[in-house]
Amino acid sequence: MSTTLSLGLLILRLGAGLTLTGHGLQKLFGWFGGAGLARTRENFARQGLQPAWLWVTLAILGEVGGGLAVALGFLTAVGAAGMAGAMAMATFKSHWRNGFWMQRGGYEYSLLLMLVSIVIGLTGPGNYALDALLGIGQRETVLFIGLALAALIVVAIGIVISRRPQTASQDA
C-alpha cells in the first residue's frame, strides 16, 4: 500500500474513530456534555429498545470499542463493523425521521460515520496501524462483511422490536 494512501487512512481512522469514541464516552460517563449511562438508558427505553441495558451496551461497544479499534488500527475489521452497526442504528432508529440535516436532529453525522466505517472496513487500516505492526491480516474484507451483515441484522431486530403497536385511534 502506498505511503500516501496509508497516511490518508491513518488520518481518516483517527478522525472518525476518536470522534465516535468521544460520542460513546458521552453515553457511558457523561463526558463532553453527554447524558451519561442512566439517562442514556432512559432514552433508549423511551425509544422502545428493550431491554434498554442490552441496547445501551451494544451502542457503547460499537462507539467506544469500535472507535478505539479503528483509531488504533487494531482488529480493524471488528471495530469498523461495530462502528457501522452503531451508526446504522443511530441513523435509522433515532435520526431518520428528522431528515438529513443535523441542526434538525437529522442523520447527516451518523450516516457519514457509518459510511467512513464501511470504507475502512473494506479497505483495511493501511500500513500505519497496529494490525500491520502485529502482522494481522490487513485485508480482512470477508470478516468485515460478515460482521457488518450480522450488525445490520441486530439493527433490524432492534428497529422492529422497538416499534410501538398501533392503537385503535391511530388506525382510524
TrEMBL record:
Coiled coil: none annotated. It holds the Pfam family DoxX. GO terms for cellular component: plasma membrane. Signal peptide: none annotated. Keywords: Cell membrane, Membrane, Transmembrane, Transmembrane helix. It is found in: Cell membrane. It is a multi-pass membrane protein. The chain crosses the membrane at residues 68-90, 111-130, 142-161. Belongs to the DoxX family. This is DoxX family protein. It comes from Thermogemmatispora tikiterensis. The lineage of its organism: Bacteria, Bacillati, Chloroflexota, Ktedonobacteria, Thermogemmatisporales.
